[in-house]
Hints:
The chain has helices spanning about 5, 20, 35-45, 60-70, 85-95, 100-110, 130-135, 140-155, 160-175, 175-180, 185-200; strands at about 10-15, 50-55, 80-85, 120-125, 160. It is of the alpha/beta class. It has one domain (about 5-200): Rossmann fold. A five-stranded parallel beta sheet has the order 2-1-3-4-5, with helices on both faces. Helix 4 (about 60-70) packs parallel to helix 6 (about 100-110).
Amino acid sequence: MTTDNLLDPRRTIVFAGDSVTDCGRRDDPAGLGDGYVKNLYDDLGPSRPMILNAGISGNRAVDLVARWETDVLAHSPDLVSVLIGINDTWRRYDKDDPTSAEQFEAAYRKLLDPLRQVQLALVEPFFVPVDDDQRGWHEDFDPKLEVVHRLAGEYGAVLVPAFAEFTARAAEVGPETLAYDGVHPTAAGHRLLADLWQRTVFS
Length: 203
């Protein structure tokens, strides 16, 4: 299926992930939230495909696995966009509840294996350190980022380089401009992510 085919009201795109995707969508009558998914919905206009937000705040990869059938596969999507991984790192540091890179990869594969006939967009997990503690996250985070890169190649997915984009832009405007706590995007951060996603996936 080509990109042009995806820009069709008969198609369905599901965005799966954690709080960065969720953005209050469960309290939104439209189910979109107020983050990058809503930005994309607005950008694509009235002839857009059906856009479904399946983000849940706090999720790790294993949490997506537990709800994948009902929240993603049941919608028979034409494209699935996955943004997951930052909580798999964060919980090591705030809850002493680590997820190894091997565990992360095993869970991520369970997400992708049923979607081999579906177009995929894997969004790099990202953070922009706002303090010295977060700068230390790279030891845990970097191997997980490598997993996402490797799986994108293996499963023929489009890789959306969010970590690279946020890192570069944060150097210009300051990390808090894009993510007030280093993780959760501001309105400017969501705009950046929406623009990057659209530019990468619909190029």
